């Protein structure tokens, strides 16, 4: 939407936020008042925001109201404190820094983020801009006090530029970004919040291509990055023209010899390239790696209310606030769901009057924040005093639209979003004009310059412009739609984040406890919860219930375009698309955003490039296993082999409605006889040979006298037969060949019945299976070995004399008289970011147990040492339904949060499988259903389609590849709605 098409209000509202507090209107969402709270909301509140003896929302709100009221005159302080408390109860949610630090003894800022300048000199100031290491020191102090930081690194001279003082060549901005990255990693912010950073580089900087690909291999982990794009560049993209990559610093001799020249304006042209080629790199990188985002620099500056006294070149880390040097984000959001009356009915409506009242009080509260906060740097305090920027926004738009019966990707929904945004704009500007009468306009206010020039303020409705001319304006900027992350969880019943639609309706949050165990919480979207509360668990959802991943990327962009004309700074918007979203549908998204007049955009498409559970550094052989030293002693693998993940696809058991041939024989052992069957199918493709052949694909046993546990061993061995990895199958059969039981026995072997001595029935069964596989040519040497190559250790890891920790659990089956201990030996493996993940590597039994389980244990121990945990997860899931006659029994259900619930299990084997899955879940490797938290390519997954995506999201959030989660340790941390979100454990981290 072009700015000229923005509708305007015709008249002012009747109330204003002046020095005489008025009585608020009643709440409009009585239905939500009866909705019980979520346990996760209370947990997040206590963990992140409550201080001292605070336990409830109102406890925190009272502290915040009291702290912000200290900026009021003493005679009105109590009145405004009550008004500030009521505004929060009615839906105003101050930003996280305000909620966590206002009114406390913490030496922390109440400001979420800043932009700080970075010059080209090493330390000294140049043209009023601090040098690189001075800027680094300022950034560290800001992050130490709790603020995130954005930077424009474009002033730093390119790689290969001349450095006259040392007669050397410059290393370029990305090398210095790494220094900032490490500093951020080291500095712990106030309140234990990891620092957030945004790195920006202009599209015409000579190092722009390196910048675009800087995060491809996992570098700059503590940065979001965005390319600052000019209109001239975008026009060159459209025209398929060349652009010049330029800098004021002179290039070195090599670059001059390669063609670098100086222009008439003094700038150096390092090289030229086609704009479209560069743009394609941006789009492909953000599709593959979720970065960089883009900032449309000319649009940002043209729309800036202070175009007459500042130039903007960067944003805060989540990009909802383009800011000048030392500019700040003083943020708060109004929860829109609290203003929907009669939700989910034909009479559903939005209460504009109540919303306007809360917006006006919220504007005053944010202005007060600027006066009561601690400022990390004097320059930040001075910048805020001169301009008094604040950023009022909303949250819960997606849920509010659902409650109003409006589907997010429709024009009626966008029209409602425009109406709400216009009401917020008018309320905030009117309140700020009234504050100017009471407190004075911001020092750099100039009515003629402020209200002219085609900027945002010049497009305000006439009545509001007249009011501003007559009264002045307290705040230069007033509006910003930021991500809400954990404040939505704590203060808004998990209403949808900011401008976003809901990401999912429900998921499970697995929170790590002090003893390193996990506790589970159900996390449900507010609108979904309210609908179920009002209409029951089985009522069909309305058509308005649509999640972020069900939308087209253009639908996300269209909502931003609808709201953007009413927001004077910017909007944090992450376009989340599923992993299978087609690139042709994605590649024009940023160009569409530019044409729509947006100031920027970010996207996130989860994919395996962003992270994997385990490191896959290519080395010839695994390093020797080394025990760790200390009380938490575990075996440790220092480096891992590189698995050929692409070749580890395998089919499940085929559907055979017409049946299939099977070879059978009798296993004769001291306690009776039973039948062994080897199912066979014709080979296909190159394995078929000239005359055709058959291959084994499963084994099973049948008969009342088969040893207990043997059928489970056969079931898991069947899966190995379908790997097309002969060496892997040989390894499995070798492992079974020496399983010893109470006493050895002789048994006739095919084909002639010669007697052969075996240490037990497991070994005998394995020998017969081996013989049949050899007859069919399934064990021949040569050929691919994809599963074998994916093992981190072929032999069972051995401890030194110091020993190692293991996990053990007792199993008691009264139905069979079995009482034994299951033990899992565990090993620490490296992860891509330098950390470790603990994995079981072998299992065993002790006590009174079916001895055939020793064979199962040997098979599963080998499966545990395959890199992709999806392999062992698949094996264990198949064992959960193994039943035995008269072998079922009741035992506790293992859970991460310690619930004591009994369940009937079909067999000892099924219970053992469930216990092992539970241990993997405790370690954050599998979920409690036995599915891997990251798909590494081993198993052939069912494709996610638009037809089944809704059902998948309704059931919970599917695990998606991303960065390492600081909570559960899995590489499943994605960007969701501008905030970090772990698709494995539900952790919500920093926003921006």
UniProtKB/TrEMBL annotation:
Cofactor(s) recorded in Swiss-Prot or TrEMBL: adenosylcob(III)alamin
Record's catalysed reaction(s): a 2'-deoxyribonucleoside 5'-diphosphate + [thioredoxin]-disulfide + H2O = a ribonucleoside 5'-diphosphate + [thioredoxin]-dithiol
Keywords, comma-separated and alphabetical: Cobalamin, Cobalt, Deoxyribonucleotide synthesis, Disulfide bond, DNA synthesis, Nucleotide-binding, Oxidoreductase
Composition-biased stretches (Low complexity): 1-32
PANTHER family, alphabetized: RIBONUCLEOSIDE-DIPHOSPHATE REDUCTASE, VITAMIN B12-DEPENDENT RIBONUCLEOTIDE REDUCTASE
Protein family membership: Belongs to the ribonucleoside diphosphate reductase class-2 family.
Protein name: Vitamin B12-dependent ribonucleotide reductase
């Amino acid at each position: 939407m072009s700015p000229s098409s923005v509708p305007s209000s015709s008249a002012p509202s009747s109330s204003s936020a002046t020095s005489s507090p008025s009585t608020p209107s009643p709440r409009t969402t009585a239905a939500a008042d009866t909705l019980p709270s979520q346990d996760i909301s209370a947990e997040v509140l206590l963990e992140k925001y409550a201080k001292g003896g605070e336990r409830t929302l109102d406890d925190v709100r009272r502290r915040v109201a009291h702290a912000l009221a200290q900026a009021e005159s003493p005679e009105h302080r109590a009145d405004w404190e009550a008004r500030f408390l009521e505004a929060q109860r009615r839906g105003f949610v101050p930003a996280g820094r305000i909620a966590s630090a206002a009114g406390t003894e913490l030496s922390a800022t109440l400001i979420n983020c800043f932009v700080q300048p970075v010059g080209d000199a090493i330390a000294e100031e140049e043209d009023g801009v601090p040098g690189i290491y001075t800027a680094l020191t300022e950034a560290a102090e800001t992050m130490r006090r709790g603020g995130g930081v954005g930077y424009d690194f474009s002033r730093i001279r390119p790689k290969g530029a001349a450095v006259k003082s040392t007669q050397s060549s410059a290393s370029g901005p990305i090398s210095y970004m790494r220094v900032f990255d490490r500093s951020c990693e080291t500095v712990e912010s106030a309140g234990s919040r990891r620092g957030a950073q945004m790195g920006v580089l202009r599209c015409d900087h000579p190092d722009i291509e390196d910048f675009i690909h800087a995060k491809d291999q996992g570098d700059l982990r503590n940065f979001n990055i965005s390319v600052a794009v000019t209109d001239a560049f975008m026009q060159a993209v459209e025209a398929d023209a060349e652009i010049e990559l330029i800098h004021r610093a002179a290039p070195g001799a090599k670059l001059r010899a390669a063609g670098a020249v100086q222009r008439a304006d003094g700038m150096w042209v390092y090289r030229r390239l086609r704009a479209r080629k560069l743009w394609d790199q941006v789009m492909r990188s953000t599709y593959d790696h979720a970065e960089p985002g883009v900032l449309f620099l000319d649009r940002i500056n043209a729309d800036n209310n202070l175009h007459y006294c500042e130039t903007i070149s960067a944003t805060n880390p989540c990009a909802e606030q383009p800011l000048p040097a030392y500019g700040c984000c003083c943020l708060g959001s109004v929860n829109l769901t609290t203003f929907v009356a009669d939700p989910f009915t034909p009479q559903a409506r939005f209460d504009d009057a109540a919303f306007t009242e809360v917006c006006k009080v919220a504007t005053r509260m944010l202005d007060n924040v600027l006066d009561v906060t601690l400022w990390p740097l004097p320059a930040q305090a001075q910048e805020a005093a001169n301009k008094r920027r604040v950023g009022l926004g909303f949250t819960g738009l997606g849920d509010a639209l659902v409650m109003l019966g409006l589907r997010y990707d429709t024009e009626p929904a966008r029209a409602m979003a425009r109406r709400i945004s216009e009401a917020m704009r008018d309320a905030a500007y009117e309140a700020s004009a009234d504050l100017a009468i009471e407190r004075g306009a911001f020092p750099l206010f100039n009515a003629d310059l402020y209200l002219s020039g085609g900027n945002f303020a010049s497009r305000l409705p006439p009545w509001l412009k007249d009011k501003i001319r007559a009264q002045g304006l307290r705040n230069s900027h007033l509006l910003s739609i930021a991500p809400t992350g954990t404040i939505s969880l704590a203060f808004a019943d998990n209403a949808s984040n900011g401008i976003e639609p809901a990401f999912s309706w429900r998921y499970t949050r697995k929170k790590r406890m002090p003893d390193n165990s996990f506790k589970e919480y159900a996390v449900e979207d507010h609108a979904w919860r309210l609908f179920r509360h009002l209409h029951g668990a089985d009522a069909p959802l309305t058509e308005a219930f649509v999640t972020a991943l069900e939308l087209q990327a253009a639908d996300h962009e269209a909502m931003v375009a609808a709201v953007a004309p009413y927001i004077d700074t910017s909007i944090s918007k992450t376009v989340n698309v599923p992993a299978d979203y087609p690139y042709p549908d994605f590649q024009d998204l940023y160009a569409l955003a530019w044409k729509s007049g947006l100031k920027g955009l970010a996207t996130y498409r989860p994919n395996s490039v962003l992270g994997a559970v385990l490191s896959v550094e290519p080395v010839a052989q695994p390093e020797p296993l080394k025990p760790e030293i200390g009380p938490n002693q575990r075996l440790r693998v220092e480096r891992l082999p590189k698995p050929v993940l692409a070749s580890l696809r395998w089919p499940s058991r085929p559907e055979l409605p017409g049946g299939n041939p099977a070879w059978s024989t009798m296993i004769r052992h001291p306690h009776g006889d039973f039948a062994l069957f080897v199912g066979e199918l014709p080979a296909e493709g190159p394995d078929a040979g000239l005359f055709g052949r058959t291959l084994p694909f499963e084994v099973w046993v049948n008969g009342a006298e088969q040893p207990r546990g043997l059928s489970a061993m056969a079931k898991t061995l069947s899966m190995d037969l379908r790997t097309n990895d002969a060496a892997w199958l040989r390894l499995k059969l070798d492992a079974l060949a020496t399983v010893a039981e109470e006493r050895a026995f002789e048994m006739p072997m095919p084909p002639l019945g010669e007697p052969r001595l075996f240490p037990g029935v497991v070994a005998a069964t394995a020998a017969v299976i081996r013989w049949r596989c050899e007859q069919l040519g399934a064990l021949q040497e040569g050929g691919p070995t994809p599963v074998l190559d994916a093992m981190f250790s072929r032999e069972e890891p051995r401890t030194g004399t110091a020993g190692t920790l293991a996990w053990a659990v007792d199993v008691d089956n009264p139905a069979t008289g079995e009482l034994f201990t299951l033990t899992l030996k565990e090993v620490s493996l490296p992860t891509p970011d330098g950390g470790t993940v603990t994995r079981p590597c072998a299992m065993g039994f002790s006590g009174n147990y079916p001895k055939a389980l020793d064979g199962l244990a040997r098979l599963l121990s080998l499966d545990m040492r395959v890199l992709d945990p999806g392999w062992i997860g698949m094996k264990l899931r198949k064992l959960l339904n193994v039943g035995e006659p008269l072998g079922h029994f009741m035992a506790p259900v293992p859970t991460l949060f310690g619930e004591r619930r009994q369940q009937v299990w079909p067999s000892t084997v099924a219970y053992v499988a469930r216990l092992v899955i539970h241990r993997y879940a405790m370690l954050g490797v599998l979920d409690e259903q036995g599915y891997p938290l990251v798909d590494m390519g081993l198993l052939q997954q069912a494709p996610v389609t638009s037809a089944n995506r809704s059902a998948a999201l309704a059931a919970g959030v599917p695990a998606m590849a991303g960065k390492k989660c600081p909570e559960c340790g899995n590489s499943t941390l994605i960007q969701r709605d501008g905030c970090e979100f772990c698709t494995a454990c539900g952790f919500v981290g920093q926003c921006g």
